[in-house]
Design a protein that fits this description.
Helix content is 41%, strand content 27%. The chain has twelve helices and 13 strands. The strands form two sheets. An eight-stranded mixed barrel has the order 4-5-7-8-9-10-11-12, surrounded by four helices. A three-stranded antiparallel beta sheet has the order 1-2-3. Bound molecules: ligand C2E and magnesium ion (3 copies). This is cyclic-guanylate-specific phosphodiesterase.
Length: 290
């Protein structure tokens, strides 16, 4: 009875979501214009943000959460950001959507901080947002209206986009650091940046991409990349954070090699805002130390 939503751009020539579902044995077939629906999703209040805890395994505390966008489509159900974010970028919708994510994440962050939870909030920033002139003002507005302290906001950027037009992006990153924000390089290792750029980028954290983390225990070459990124981070004075950690084997490998910041299903899936405080309060005692 499970609904299956498939994104099918090639066949139809435009972006459409084909939606199949089984009703009392008969198969119905519907098409939605994903683009039109995406345009209206903000005003229809169909976006939700889930928050995935990031654990500092040295203390057992939640040191951060990553804000991950979800689209609750009225008919197709929950649509993954892997499907609609590229479309939003293509349609120029990522700027207003990204603005909403920033403001909403900061608003929630302030509520949690006022309750005594001092973790930082990581927000994904798409390439187009970085290139857009409005981003600086949007971030400032999100900080001002929420009252969240800037050092508790972490912007996650990816290397490919930064280096497409480094003369525009790198000065902006410096500006964000001057404002007190922290910066993470997302999906590190999957892009094409030259390592010499890394020392010019004012970032705080390298997020080791989950494709390498998945290799731990099965692919020695992937493991070698994980180790190399941890060493690289350390020698550049950056933090390494591993994402997509699912098993205790991956966890102990990472800790043994000096990566203590962990995000992944092993600790928690992304949680709706209302479930986060319980997790944060209980997490510290539940970690087992060697
Ligand atoms: P990302 O920023 O690299 O986020 C990490 C993704 O890995 C998330 O997928 C998260 O749910 C998933 N993940 C976390 N732990 C595990 C694990 O242990 N195992 C597995 N298999 N997956 C894990 P999600 O939420 O589907 O988001 C996918 C991508 O969509 C994100 O990748 C990010 O690039 C993009 N995205 C999500 N929200 C936003 C947003 O607000 N703005 C922008 N620009 N992009 C976003
Ligand atoms: Mg991310
Ligand atoms: Mg990532
Ligand atoms: Mg990713």
């Amino acid at each position: 009875h499970a609904d299956v939503a498939m994104f099918d751009a090639k066949e139809s020539g435009k972006n459409q979501l084909r939606f199949y579902h089984d009703e009392q044995g008969s198969q119905r077939y519907e098409r939605f214009s994903l683009v039109n629906d995406l345009r209206r999703a903000l005003e229809k209040d169909e976006f939700r943000i889930f928050y995935q805890p990031q654990i500092d395994t040295r203390t057992g505390n939640v040191m951060g959460v990553e804000a991950l966008l979800r689209w609750q489509h009225s008919e197709a159900g929950m649509i993954s950001p892997a499907k609609f974010i590229p479309l939003a970028e293509e349609q120029g919708l990522i700027v207003p959507i990204g603005e909403w994510v920033l403001r909403e994440s900061c608003r929630m962050g302030k509520i949690w901080h006022d309750q005594g939870m001092d973790f930082r909030i990581g927000v994904n920033i798409a390439g187009q947002q970085i290139m857009h002139e409005s981003l600086m003002g949007t971030v400032q507005t999100a900080l001002d209206e929420s009252g969240i302290r800037p050092h508790l906001l972490d912007l996650e950027v990816t290397e490919n986009f930064l280096l497409k037009q480094p003369e525009i992006t790198i000065p902006k990153l410096h500006k964000f650091r001057e404002m007190g924000l922290s910066l993470s390089m997302d999906d590190f290792g999957t892009g094409f940046s030259s390592l010499s750029y890394l020392k010019k980028l004012p970032i705080n954290t390298l997020k080791i991409d989950q494709s390498f983390v998945r290799d731990i225990g099965s692919d020695p070459e992937g493991e070698a990349i994980v180790k190399a990124i941890i060493v690289l981070a350390k020698s550049l004075g950056l933090e390494a954070l591993a994402e997509g950690v699912e098993t205790s084997e991956q966890l102990s490998y990472l800790r043994t090699h000096g990566c203590h910041l962990i995000q992944g299903y092993y600790f928690s899936r992304p949680l709706p805002a209302e479930e986060l405080p319980d997790f944060v309060m209980n997490q510290a005692v539940e970690i087992s130390f060697e």
